[in-house]
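[[Sequence with tokens]]
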Amino acid sequence: MKINVGNTDRWVRIIAGLGLIGASLTGFIGMWGWLGIVPVLTGTFRFCPAYLPFGLSTCSIKK
């Protein structure tokens, strides 16, 4: 797997995902909040499969 999630994108994903999971645990948004696992995992592993077909990457280019 090639890393395609940069630092800012990574932390936004992790925080948003944890927020969704937390909202689900408190009963605020129901079971749909468990979809927050996806951004937490993509942020943790720094790889987003949805970026591949479009050739996107939020990593800074190091030369």
